[in-house]
Design brief:
By secondary structure, the protein is of the alpha+beta class. The chain has one domain: Peptide deformylase (Peptide Deformylase). The chain is built from 3 helices and 5 strands; from the N terminus they run H-E-E-E-E-E-H-H. It has a 5-stranded antiparallel beta sheet with strand order 1-2-3-4-5. Strand 2 and strand 3 form a beta hairpin. The mean pLDDT is 95. Bound molecules: cobalt (II) ion. The site of cobalt (II) ion (CO) has 4 residues, from helix 2.
Length: 169
């Protein structure tokens, strides 16, 4: 198995708008396997393909759901098609190590996309899973959770973020 490295704040691939997947083939299956193995090694509840350097619209989620089961899902070309309400969760990100901040996001979302089988997927999520899907889909647009905190909090983090970027570069 190829070892993929997590791309860290300061890496330009995290700021790229990822491209839609045109067809689900073996390379996408392999990408998803790589993503799940990185997530397992690094620990985390979700990952976007550009976090391992592949600017394609693919996310995985491996998170506890409200009913006590787990969500284990890979989605290709995911989009949020409806949203309701607002909430705040403390978020972190494997690409922004050591930083945790409350982020205000939609409380309930409908997520659509394609499964690896090529079948259409549509489901509603709320609370933590809703946050995870929004966080991962943001990655595909080059948006990081630290972009969604207040300007004041962001200023306070600037030094720490530049340090992460310097160590990366
Ligand atoms: Co992240």
């Amino acid at each position: 198995m190829s070892m993929k490295k997590i791309r860290v704040y300061g890496d330009p691939v995290l700021r790229e708008k990822a491209k839609p997947v045109e067809g689900i083939d073996e390379s996408i299956d392999q990408l998803v396997r790589d993503m799940f193995s990185v997530l397992e090694i690094e620990g985390g509840i979700g990952l976007a393909a550009n976090q391992i350097g592949v600017p394609l619209r693919v996310i995985i989620v491996s998170a506890p759901s409200d009913d006590g089961t787990r969500i284990e899902l890979a989605l290709v070309n995911p989009v949020i098609t409806s949203a309701e309400g607002w909430l705040e969760h403390e978020e972190g990100c494997l690409s922004v190590p050591g930083i945790y901040e409350e982020v205000r996001r939609r409380a309930k979302v409908t997520v659509e996309g394609l499964q690896l089988s090529g079948e259409r997927y549509e489901a509603g999520y709320e609370d933590l899973p809703a946050t995870v899907f929004q966080h991962e889909i943001d990655h595909l647009d080059g948006v990081l959770f630290v972009d969604r905190i207040s300007p004041l909090k962001r200023r306070l983090l600037e030094k720490e973020l530049s340090k992460i970027a310097r160590e990366e570069g």
